[in-house]
Input
Amino acid sequence: MRAFDDEVALTVAPFYLVHMLQRTLPAGFIAPCLPTKTDKLPSGSQWLHEIKHDGFRIIARKSGGQVRLYSRPGNDLSRRFPLIVETLARLRSRSCIIDGEAVACDDNGVA
Output
Protein backbone atom coordinates (compact mmCIF):
# COMPACT_ATOMS: atom_id res chain seq x y z
CA MET A 1 0.00 0.00 0.00
CA ARG A 2 2.91 2.37 0.74
CA ALA A 3 4.20 2.21 -2.85
CA PHE A 4 0.72 3.14 -4.09
CA ASP A 5 0.57 6.14 -1.71
CA ASP A 6 3.98 7.36 -2.90
CA GLU A 7 2.93 6.97 -6.54
CA VAL A 8 -0.27 8.93 -5.93
CA ALA A 9 1.68 11.68 -4.12
CA LEU A 10 4.13 12.01 -7.01
CA THR A 11 1.25 12.18 -9.48
CA VAL A 12 -0.71 14.78 -7.50
CA ALA A 13 2.23 17.01 -6.51
CA PRO A 14 2.69 18.69 -9.95
CA PHE A 15 -1.03 19.60 -10.08
CA TYR A 16 -0.84 21.06 -6.57
CA LEU A 17 2.21 23.16 -7.52
CA VAL A 18 0.58 24.40 -10.74
CA HIS A 19 -2.50 25.45 -8.77
CA MET A 20 -0.29 27.27 -6.24
CA LEU A 21 1.52 29.15 -9.01
CA GLN A 22 -1.71 30.19 -10.75
CA ARG A 23 -3.48 31.74 -7.79
CA THR A 24 -2.73 35.09 -6.21
CA LEU A 25 -1.19 34.59 -2.81
CA PRO A 26 -1.69 37.05 0.04
CA ALA A 27 0.93 39.71 0.66
CA GLY A 28 3.51 38.40 3.09
CA PHE A 29 2.91 34.73 2.29
CA ILE A 30 5.98 32.52 2.35
CA ALA A 31 5.69 28.92 1.18
CA PRO A 32 6.31 26.27 3.85
CA CYS A 33 9.31 23.98 3.90
CA LEU A 34 8.13 20.64 2.55
CA PRO A 35 9.60 17.25 3.39
CA THR A 36 11.75 15.32 0.95
CA LYS A 37 11.44 11.56 0.68
CA THR A 38 14.61 9.65 1.41
CA ASP A 39 15.61 6.10 2.26
CA LYS A 40 18.16 7.16 4.89
CA LEU A 41 17.84 9.77 7.64
CA PRO A 42 20.51 12.46 7.70
CA SER A 43 22.83 12.42 10.69
CA GLY A 44 25.19 14.82 12.39
CA SER A 45 24.94 17.79 14.70
CA GLN A 46 23.42 20.05 12.00
CA TRP A 47 20.17 18.04 11.82
CA LEU A 48 17.12 18.20 14.08
CA HIS A 49 14.38 15.57 13.96
CA GLU A 50 10.88 16.20 15.27
CA ILE A 51 7.91 14.04 16.19
CA LYS A 52 5.25 14.08 13.45
CA HIS A 53 1.97 15.48 14.78
CA ASP A 54 -1.27 15.64 12.80
CA GLY A 55 -2.61 19.15 12.88
CA PHE A 56 -2.68 22.22 10.67
CA ARG A 57 0.54 23.24 8.95
CA ILE A 58 0.89 26.95 9.58
CA ILE A 59 3.28 29.63 8.46
CA ALA A 60 3.15 32.48 10.99
CA ARG A 61 4.43 35.89 9.94
CA LYS A 62 4.93 38.69 12.44
CA SER A 63 5.63 42.21 11.28
CA GLY A 64 5.54 44.82 14.00
CA GLY A 65 2.35 44.25 15.98
CA GLN A 66 0.60 42.43 13.15
CA VAL A 67 0.52 38.61 13.02
CA ARG A 68 -0.89 36.54 10.15
CA LEU A 69 -1.23 32.77 9.99
CA TYR A 70 -1.26 31.04 6.60
CA SER A 71 -2.04 27.48 5.51
CA ARG A 72 0.13 25.59 3.01
CA PRO A 73 -1.87 26.88 0.04
CA GLY A 74 -1.84 30.44 1.41
CA ASN A 75 -5.25 30.73 3.08
CA ASP A 76 -5.37 33.17 6.00
CA LEU A 77 -6.00 31.16 9.19
CA SER A 78 -5.53 34.07 11.62
CA ARG A 79 -9.16 34.12 12.79
CA ARG A 80 -9.21 30.35 13.24
CA PHE A 81 -6.35 30.37 15.77
CA PRO A 82 -6.65 33.60 17.82
CA LEU A 83 -4.64 32.22 20.76
CA ILE A 84 -1.64 31.59 18.49
CA VAL A 85 -1.98 35.09 16.99
CA GLU A 86 -2.15 36.70 20.45
CA THR A 87 0.82 34.69 21.72
CA LEU A 88 3.02 35.53 18.73
CA ALA A 89 2.05 39.21 18.96
CA ARG A 90 3.62 39.25 22.45
CA LEU A 91 6.99 37.97 21.24
CA ARG A 92 9.79 40.48 21.76
CA SER A 93 10.95 40.23 18.15
CA ARG A 94 9.76 42.96 15.80
CA SER A 95 9.43 40.52 12.94
CA CYS A 96 9.72 36.78 12.40
CA ILE A 97 8.48 33.89 10.32
CA ILE A 98 7.63 30.61 12.02
CA ASP A 99 6.90 27.42 10.10
CA GLY A 100 5.09 24.91 12.32
CA GLU A 101 2.11 22.74 13.11
CA ALA A 102 -0.97 23.77 15.13
CA VAL A 103 -1.97 20.74 17.19
CA ALA A 104 -4.67 20.30 19.85
CA CYS A 105 -3.39 18.41 22.90
CA ASP A 106 -5.13 17.14 26.03
CA ASP A 107 -4.04 18.01 29.58
CA ASN A 108 -1.31 15.34 29.36
CA GLY A 109 0.15 16.78 26.16
CA VAL A 110 -1.20 13.97 23.99
CA ALA A 111 -2.37 15.04 20.54
